[in-house]
Amino acid sequence: MYVEDVGESGLIEKIINLVKVKNKDIIVPIGDDAAVVRTSPGYYMVFTTDFLIEGVHFDLSQISAYQLGRKSMLVNISDIAAMSATPVYALVSLGIKPKTKVEFVEELYEGMADVSKEYNFAIIGGDTVSSPCSLAINVAMAGKVEPDLVTKRSGARVGDKILVTGELGASAAGFFLLNSKIKTNDYLIKTHFEPVPRLKEAQISAGCGAHAIEDISDGLASEIFHICDASKVGAIIYEENLPIPKGIKNVADIAGKLPEDFALYGGEDYEIVITISSDKADYLIEQVLSKTGTDISVIGEIVEKKKGISLLAKDNIKKPLSKGYDHFKKGVF
Q1: Do 197 and 141 contact (CB within 8 A), yes or no?
Q2: Which domain holds residue 202?
Q3: Given Cys at both, which of 164, 202, 230, 307 links 234, Cβ 3.0 to 4.6 Å?
Q4: β-pairing, 212-215 with 272-277?
Q5: What CA–CA distance (Å, rounded) separates 301 from 278?
Q6: Cβ–Cβ under 8 Å, residues 233 and 302
Q7: pTM score
Q8: Which of 116, 148, 180 is the last residue in one of the domains?
Q9: How many beta carbons lie within 10 A of that of residue 30, not counting itself?
Q10: pLDDT tens track for 181-207
């Protein structure tokens, strides 16, 4: 059965059955012209949205519908995490080719629904349209956060330590392996398909007094520039301290790159980069590790804007840090 066989109304009915939830704050659920929800007093609402386009962000010959559904939600949760917030609601819009099988759409939504259950938020609506060439997925997500815990990229201060959760470069290395048809490392490929948003880690960091938090979607270098531009500061990144998985060296050799290139410029890690005063850094690391099991590495420091944004290489030579990925330009990676 194809989407064109059931039509928009039939498809929406199937989607409603897949994402049906009971929540006293949802006044008008999915299925109407708009959703209506009751907001909680004492919280700020946080909104984000992400587009995934077939042929740009994913290849349907490489990823299952279920994995794609999960990833489309997880990358939005990562943005919510960057604000130290908690996801509450999501809206999903799809551009679908008429000859798409209904079972594919159901599997896509099963992935989304499973993530919504894992992270305790509700899918409350969206839109479906015909797309002549490729699948397009847009997720808009709302979260909530206590006013005194909001973390912005503009909060970094001179003297802050720069920290990152987890490891960097695995997703980009997995993407390279997929497109090179060299599927030699299941861990790297899985990391690319199944990101883990650092929701609890960000909330703990905010509670420890973090000044700025940014999720790493376009590569560490790009996120460092975002923080520095917004905060009007500079930064030094310690190449020696970058947390890079061991398996990346072999991939880098095949690609003719350095392992550090994957960590700095590869993107789609969905870890978080944090800045916090130097006297609180150790406490933050201890709290995150003890409460979540996630490692955090100190990878640099915030400096005055006039000192620029630089990379301190392993040979102790300082050089300007390249900006990294740009959606509308050819990046350095």
Answers
A1: no
A2: 153-320
A3: 307
A4: antiparallel
A5: 9
A6: yes
A7: 0.88
A8: 148
A9: 20
A10: 776 778 999 999 999 999 999 999 999
